[in-house]
Amino acid sequence: MELFLSIAITHFIALLTPGADFFLILKTLMQSQKRAARFTCAGIALGNAIILISIYLSLFIIGQVNTELFILMKWLGVVYFAYLAFQCFRLAQSAQRVNQLAEQRIDQPQKHAYLKAFLSGLFSSLFNPKNLMFYSVLVILIYPQYSFVQNALLCFWMVGLVLIWNLAIVQLIGSSIYLSWLNRHLRHLYYLAGFSFLLFMLVLIIY
């Protein structure tokens, strides 16, 4: 019980800390709409699930977490965060108001936009080594302590919590009050997101 409470508190603190996923959701919400941002949340949750499955498979097959996977994810993360930063700076240069973007969305194929949002969330989650390191530490702690069913339930709980938390963020900042605020500060928020992605990229390089 004490171990579970420690994991729950640690996981909740990690959710409270704004990271790459948060700024990606913010970028999607500014660029597209709430439904597209929800697809981004689904992609992030799936990425978390894939990471957890990969860690368990690594422990089951070779008895330890594969360090080469950390290195691969690190450099893929550097490239992907650089791409996201470039996209944010490009959008900031030609930032348009939310209502102008809404008019453009009518002409955009929705399925393509949703797929793009989903894949963006998936790649952000998979290519962020912080997720791999965070879950590796947790899994190493709980793997020998709990049964297979308990490990599976705990993983479902962690992934579900990530999904619910991110959907709540979308619901909150996607309300009309916050959209009005986004309307006034759209350009600055794109720059904020861009510099945040650059910061995440530099941290990965230095680390």
Automatic annotation (TrEMBL):
Highest taxon in the source lineage: Bacteria
InterPro entries: LeuE-type
Transmembrane segments: 6-26, 38-63, 69-92, 148-168, 189-206
One cellular component term from this protein's GO annotations in UniProt: plasma membrane
Tagged with keyword Membrane: yes
Keywords: Cell membrane, Membrane, Transmembrane, Transmembrane helix
Annotated membrane topology: Multi-pass membrane protein
Protein name as annotated: LysE family translocator
